[in-house]
Write the structure tokens for this entry.
Amino acid sequence: MKHRFFVPDRVEAGATIALDSDERHHAHVLRVREGEEVELFDASGKNYLARFDSPDSLAILHEAENREPRTENHLAMSIIQLDKFELILQKATELGVASIVPLMTDRMEVRIERLRGKEDRWKKIVLEAVKQSGRSKIPRIEPPLKFDDAIRREGTKIIFDADAPSGTQQPSNPATLFVGPEGGFSERELELARASGASFEQLGPRRLRAETAAIVAVALVAARSGDI
């Protein structure tokens, strides 16, 4: 795959643009050569092929392949240990989620105060995952949300729970996938989910770590939709 760069504005084929300071540094680290073809993705979520003449002069040649998923899946992930939560941000982005909702649950073990100041770091993790995976749309990282509010979202809601009856759900579009903390969702939360019309699934006969469950859940739903 060609080297990829993000342009925070909308661009068009035939234009010549300059990279911002962060992407200039990225190009320097990658040692991009004059005349080399690279990919750009812009604020509108489009992907372009461009010729790198210098950091101040990239000639946009034409629109490139769109690798975005056909379905719109969102991950509502309980806030867990921050290093593991950041792994989920990276992998869920690679797998094509449209947004990630940090979820405050009854059994959450991380104090909400620990999230302060993490927004820029999380955005950088997601942006790098978009570049690496060939996507052109940057998933939104939504503000932390209580489970009681998140379960009222529109669209299909799937609760992944180790004790749920075996079954599969072919989600409509959009779908929100709920994954709990290490101890799982509380019985109160599960009852609220049932009352909200959510469906329930398990991820096989073995109990998975929360970060593993999140990655498997996103991959499973993407595969059912033909996006893997």
Observations:
- The first strand starts at residue 4 and ends at 7.
- The radius of gyration is 19 Å.
